[in-house]
Q: What sequence folds into this?
């Protein structure tokens, strides 16, 4: 049973947290993209 | 080399919206019933392990390639392949249109009515029908599946899709931005809730621990590959369409990673919610899982919610069907957008194209909405034959009709650092992956025809005429597309 829980937490960490990281990254990188676009407009 | 210019230019307004729109397409009904069912029946943890290997080796490189066709080719399924390919441009356009119509749009012919069933169940979950004293899940299922009522529910889904798609990326992006996060957290919530039910650990053990003896079974390898192809959705041309929405600094490697991670996360969470729940509540968990399939969502689960009882059972049912409906309707929206993108690129107004696409989906969807044999027919021909051929076209367009190193440089060419650096390995992989669809088709036919027996699911008498119909349609599309691109090329710069 312990093995099932260990695998569960590995999956949770790799896949679910990984998926949420892509959300966070898209918000983070958007600021840089907007700044670059503003710079190009200037 | 002359390039043709799309008459429809629209860009996303944020990276988050792009990500949510892309993952909303990948996550569909299959995440809620097909993944848990296949994972449980084909090796549990072994299936999960192989699934991740296929995601990295096949899905990730090909999704990057498909986005590149749209972004670098600056257009949908006609303009993107034509502009990216350096040779055999007309075959490249055939590839784009093949992906659009045989790998995605035609799937909507039966997908919309199944979405209608989920919508109907969602309403019943909210109304508390599963808890009525005289509730019979088989009667409820028979009242909607393959009936005129089911078709009417499907009609509502198509109308919703037409309204959203008529607003272009603004409409699709807004709906996806709202629905996907809700779907994700609802699915996570029911998964966590399942694990608190006494007896669920046995199901978790069954679901998560690899049964290594199954590693030598080719069926486990191919079932996990088929799940990756059908669930994540490379070759359905949505990523090509989304690539055309990308701004210069939208990172393909990031959005492609988001696709595979979010799709797998929802599928795995749905499995964590369902398999341990069956073990905790059902007196015959193994039989229920084996027999599951499509009936899992419509017959087994309502019974389980009823057995759970109380507010917990009610809320579980409501959240489950809302999440499932969100997953399904966003796919119908994406499928419609895929089908009409070539028309928009050629100058048709978005609203007109959306209405025309909706009418075609509705009419072509009448036979599979009323007859399960037709649904099985559409599903087999499109999923087993058309989709792998679509994958072949991605490899051809990005690695054989043009230099893959140039495509890779195009993907990396931004003012920001890409999340993942694609090396030369990507070039070799996209070239080599051209063999995968052939292995898949040959194995699948051999498996159903010879190993399982011809009457086990894939029926010879309609498979081969179906392949012939695909070939004839492919030839017609090639000649029509050739005329269209010749005209466009005359005006090209």
A:
């Amino acid at each position: 049973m312990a093995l099932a829980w260990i695998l569960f937490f590995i999956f949770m960490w790799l896949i679910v947290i990984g998926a949420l990281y892509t959300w966070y990254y898209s918000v983070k990188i958007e600021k840089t993209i907007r700044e670059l676009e503003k710079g190009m407009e200037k | 080399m002359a390039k043709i210019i799309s008459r429809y230019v629209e860009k996303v307004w944020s990276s988050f919206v792009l990500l949510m729109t892309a993952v909303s397409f990948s996550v569909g009904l299959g995440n809620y019933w097909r993944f848990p069912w296949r994972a449980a029946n084909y090796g549990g943890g072994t299936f999960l392990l192989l699934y991740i290997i296929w995601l990295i080796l096949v899905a990730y490189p090909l999704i990057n390639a498909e986005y590149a066709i749209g972004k670098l080719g600056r257009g949908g399924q006609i303009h993107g392949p034509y502009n990216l390919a350096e040779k055999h441009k007309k075959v490249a356009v055939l590839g784009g249109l093949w992906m659009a119509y045989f790998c995605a749009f035609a799937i909507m012919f039966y997908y919309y009515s199944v979405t209608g069933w989920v919508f109907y169940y969602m309403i019943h979950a909210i109304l508390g029908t599963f808890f009525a004293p005289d509730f019979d899940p088989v009667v409820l299922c028979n009242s909607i599946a393959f009936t005129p009522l089911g078709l009417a529910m499907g009609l509502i889904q198509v109308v919703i899709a037409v309204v959203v798609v008529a607003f272009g990326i603004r409409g699709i992006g807004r709906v996806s931005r709202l629905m996907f996060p809700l779907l994700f957290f609802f699915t996570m919530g029911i998964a966590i809730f399942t694990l608190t039910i006494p007896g669920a650990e046995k199901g978790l053990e069954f679901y998560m621990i690899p049964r290594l003896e199954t590693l030598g079974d080719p069926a486990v390898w191919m079932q996990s590959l088929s799940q990756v192809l059908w669930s994540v959705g490379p070759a359905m041309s949505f990523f090509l369409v989304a690539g055309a929405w990308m701004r210069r600094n939208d990172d393909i490697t990031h959005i492609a990673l988001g696709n595979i991670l979010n799709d797998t996360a929802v599928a795995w969470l749905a499995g964590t919610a369902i398999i341990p729940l069956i073990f905790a509540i059902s007196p015959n968990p193994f039989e229920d899982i084996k027999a599951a399939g499509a009936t899992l969502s419509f017959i087994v689960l309502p019974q389980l919610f009823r057995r759970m009882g109380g507010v917990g059972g009610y809320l579980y049912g409501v959240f489950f069907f809302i999440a499932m409906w969100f997953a399904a309707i966003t796919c119908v929206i994406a499928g419609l957008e895929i089908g009409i993108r070539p028309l928009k690129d050629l100058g048709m107004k978005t609203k007109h194209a959306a209405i025309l696409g909706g009418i075609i989906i509705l009419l072509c969807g009448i036979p599979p909405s009323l007859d399960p044999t037709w649904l099985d027919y559409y599903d087999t021909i499109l999923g087993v034959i058309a989709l792998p051929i679509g994958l072949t076209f991605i490899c051809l367009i990005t690695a054989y009709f043009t230099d893959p190193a140039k495509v890779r440089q195009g993907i990396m060419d931004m003012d920001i650092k890409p999340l993942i650096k694609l090396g030369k390995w990507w070039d070799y992989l996209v070239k080599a992956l051209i063999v995968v669809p052939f292995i898949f088709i040959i194995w699948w036919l051999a498996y159903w025809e010879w190993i399982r027996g011809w009457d086990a699911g894939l029926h010879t008498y309609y498979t081969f005429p179906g392949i012939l119909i695909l070939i004839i349609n492919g030839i017609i599309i090639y000649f029509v597309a050739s005329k269209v691109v010749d005209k466009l090329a005359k005006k090209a710069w």
Q: What stands out?
A: Chain B has a mean pLDDT of 89.
